[in-house]
Amino acid sequence: MCKNSSIYLIKNKIFSDNNLNEIVLKIDNLSKKFKQFVAVNNVSLEVNKGETVGFVGPNGAGKTTTIKLIAKLLKPTSGNVLIKNMGGDLQDIRINSQDLVSMGFLIDIPVFYDSTPYVLLKHYAQLHKYPKNKIDQRIDELLYFFDLANWKKKRIKKFSKGMKQKLGFIQAIIHEPEIIFLDEPQTGLDPKARIKIRQYLMTLKEQKKTIFIASHMLREISEICEKIAFINNGEIIKFDRIENMEKVLKTSEIVCQLLEPIPKERFELVEKKLNEKLAPYLDKNIDPTIVESPVQYQPSSKNLTIYYDGRLESKGEIFKILGKDFDSEFTVISFSQSKTSLLEKLYLEKIK
Amino acid sequence: MDKRIVREKKKNFNPFLRTYLLELRLRWKRVLFFSIISVVYVLLFSFFYPYHFDEGQFFRYELDFFRFFILFVSCFFFSDIVCSEFDKKTGYILFPKINKNKLIGGKYLANLSIIILLVIIHYLMLDISVVVIYDTVIPESFISLGIAIFYTITLSALILLFSTIMPKANLTTIVVILIYLVGFLVLEQVLTAINQEIEPIFSLNYIGNLINFIIPGGLLEGQRWMWVYYAGDVLPPVKVWRTPTIEVGILIMSLYTALSFFFIFLALKKKEL
To answer: b/e map of B191-218 (b: 16 or more CB within 10 Å)?
Structure first.
């Protein structure tokens, strides 16, 4: 137990980002050392009710260790984890976990006792004091949603890795927790299962559940989370809303979907012309090690990606030029702005 | 008592109770298997028992098997309680709703209940056999049952200690069986060679003899040792201790149990999932 911590109970009226928000999770200077190795180094973080936070970092960055510290699987070397309790106060998790708001955890690929999903899910629900009369219905609903209904009474040792991961996700949410901690929830899942998990996470988001997802899959994270914390070597490098992070980059990208592919022999010419015409609006500070050129064409997907300076006026001009000066070269059928690649860029910038 | 305190206690007890109930549910196949073995063995022995045995001899002879049976069964039930939990990390799912003390405590008590049930079943079968064959009841068999339960608790605490220290359940079983069947026996022999007057009260194997010798007829009343002649009359007889007194037996078993739980507590405190 950390001896220097005097804060155990803090009233939850804390101002953050100029908004009056209800903090449900507060990590305060949390550190964990394994002998000489510092796995988590002075991590501080506040998560508000209803927020979906992505915890992103490379392998060995300290994501899982942080979640294990929150789950009380590990003892911190120093620092506190405070979670909202039933009385609405922030409470140190070391006092009594029974008083805290309900939480659900999925850490690593879960290992289950040798039994059936029904028996174990019922046990988890009972452990979390989920209303007795609703347990069976809840189990059936979730197993059906995640395509495990036919496996309800089969032994888990016969399950594939992906099925166990889905079951792990179900156990984390079986009791409808207020805060959900997911560590690499997409590991071992097929595309359909990934979509299902994402869909369910979106539903939970709508229900104003607080979700904390650790992952290194930026695409998944950016689609679900509104805030991202980059972690590397046990330290939080950046923690902010995705939009704010984009502003920091001062660059944006437009993805243009073309009707027909640009013929190979014509592309060099078209690219040169695009660079000339769009030059005043393109991102001049682009890092060539991350993005080769501000105008990129992917023949396989018929996508034309343009990295511009992020200004709204520039965006308008680009649309005008593409419609006016290139109508003979290609036809743009849709425009989109992907957050992912920007995040990837930022991620690579931050985590070197 | 304050209603709030009662509610708090109930809240803290729930994870423990749930673990206990789940463990009983998960172990039912093993319970059934060992119950059948126990019942079948007693039935077979009752059908084919040596006719010259009196009821005391019958009971004691049967209890020799029982002591090995209970050692192996205890290893089966207790050896994986801690190490498999830390090895497979099944507890990841349950934390922080449950802490490791409640998890291990719930599992331990569930297994202890099971094994005590198996001991009772075995004694019950034996008593029924004695009634059927000899038309009598051995009152001392109930004292023996009490000692057997105490002995099982001691054994379970010792196995749980090794389960806390060892990384795998198989290794725990091997180490416990080796200590019990080889370690204690060798030490007993060494002690006999050094000084025959010293009673090997450190040995759980020796303490376990109390289960058999409490049934009258095994030794003369008040006698706790016997002369054993090796190689006829060529070598002088060796004084072999056969059973401790009930008081010493209970004291040693209590000591083993208390020390085991103390070390389990220390080891668990340091252990992280």
So the answer is: bbeeeeeebbbbbbbbbbbbbbbbbeeb
**Distance between CA atoms of residues A167 and B269, nearest Å:** 30
Strands A9-10 and A90-92, bridge-based pairing: antiparallel
Across chain B, what does the average pLDDT equal?
86
A115 touches A151 (CB < 8 A): no
Residue of A126, A130, A166, A181 to mutate, interface with B, max B Cβ within 10 Å: A126
Question: Which residue among B93, B96, B273 places its CB closest to the CB of A171?
Answer: B93
- Token pair 């109508």 is found at A327
Look at B230 and A215; give whichever has higher pLDDT.
A215
Residue A318's domain comprises 250-350
What 3-state class would DSSP assign to A277? Answer: helix
- What pLDDT score does A153 carry? 92
Instruction: Report pLDDT digits (tens) over A282-292.
Output: 877 666 655 67
Helix H segments across B166-245?
169-178, 184-194, 204-213
Give φ, ψ of B80 to 5 degrees. -100, 5
- Confirm if A236 and A351 have CB atoms less than 8 A apart: no
List of chain B residues whose C-beta atoms are within 8 Å of the C-beta of residue A68:
273
| Six token digits for residue B261 | 């739980």
> CA–CA separation, A67 vs B97, rounded Å?
14
Residue type, B116: I
Our measurement of the distance from residue A333's CA atom to the centroid of its chain's CA atoms, rounded to an integer in Å, reads 30
- The pLDDT value recorded for residue B194 is 87
Euclidean distance between CA atoms A82 and A47, whole angstroms:
11
Same domain, A160 and A257: no
Residue holding tokens 């501000």?
A294
- For residue A84, give how far its alpha carbon lies from the nearest alpha carbon of chain B (Å): 14
Q: Which residue of A has its CA nearest to B89?
A: A111
User: Same domain, yes or no, for A139 and A265?
Assistant: no
Query: What CA–CA distance (Å, rounded) separates B52 from B47?
Result: 14
Out of A196, A215, A246, a domain closes at A246
Decide which of A223, A246, A269 is a domain's last residue.
Answer: A246
